[in-house]
Amino acid sequence: MQSGLSDQSTRPACPEPFALVVGRALAGAAPDEVEAAFRRMGLRPERVERADNAGALIDGRLLRLRFGEVALLAGQASAAAIECADPDHPATSRLAASLPPDWNDAGQAWVFFEEPRIADDRTQSTRLREIFKMQVLLIDLLDASHYFWSPARLWSEAEQFRAAVTEMLASGMPPVLHLIAFRLADSGVGAAVRTRGLALFGGQELEGRMPAGWTVAEMVKRLSRLALDIMLHGPVADARRMRGLNPGEWVSLSPGRGRKDGGATVMVEFGSSF
Length: 274
Fold this sequence. Notes:
Elements lengths: L1 E2 L15 E5 L7 H10 L5 E2 L10 E10 L2 E8 L1 H6 L8 E3 L13 E6 L9 H19 L1 E6 L4 E4 H14 L4 H4 L1 E6 L4 E6 L2 H4 L1 E6 L6 H18 L6 E4 L5 E10 L5 E9 L2
Parallel strand pairs: 6-9, 12-15
Antiparallel strand pairs: 1-6, 2-7, 2-8, 3-4, 4-5, 5-7, 8-9, 10-11, 11-12, 13-14, 14-15
Helix pairs in contact: 3-4
C-alpha cells in the first residue's frame, strides 16, 4: 500500500502541521494574479505582513484564506517545507504516489496551515473536517497532482485525497490512509508496524508486532481500523481485549507506554483462538 515503510530512518520534526499541495495551475503567476484566483474561488484572501509561525514554511507573499469559520495561512513553500516533504527521504511515506522530478520547481509547491486561533467550542475533528473541505477547493484551484500531510510525513495522489474527503463528507469516515502513515519497524522482538500522525487526532499512536506469516498489508488493514476508532471516538483509556477482524481472531490493546518522542503509544497484539 505504501512505499518507504521502514521506520529506521528519522529526521527532525517538521514545523507545525501543514499541508503541501503540488500543482502547476498558478506556477509563474504574479502575486496579484494569485490573489485574484483565490478570490474567485471564494476564499477571501488577505495579505498578512507578519506571522510568527510562517517564517519556516512560506517564501514570498503570505496570505490568509478563509472558508466559513476556518482560516488558513498560505504561500509558496519555503526550502524548509520542501526539505521536510522530500519524497525520496527514507523517513517519508508515500501512498501509491510517484512524484515527478520537477515537483518542487518554482511556483508549484504551496503550503497551507492553520493560523493560531482563540479556543472555541468546535471539536478538533469538526475543525479538521472544515480544513480538509477547504483543501479540496485548493486542490481544484491549483489543478494539483500531489498532496503532502506533514503530521504523518505522507504523500498522496491529490485526486485520491480529494475522493477520500468527498467520501468523508458522505459517510463521516475520515480519510485515515491519507492522514496516518504506517511504518515498518523493529520492535526488538520482531517486526512491527507503527502509526505516525495519529497523535494529532487522539493523542496516541499505535504499535503492533507482526504475527508470524502476516504481511504488512494485513497489519495496515487492521491497524487502520483501530486508528479510525481513535479518530472518531478518542484515545484508548484502558487495556482491553476484543474480537478481531476474522472469526477466531482477537486483538489486545495496552495503552500507556511512552514513545521516544514523548507521546503515548498503544501496544497492539493480535492472535487467534485456534
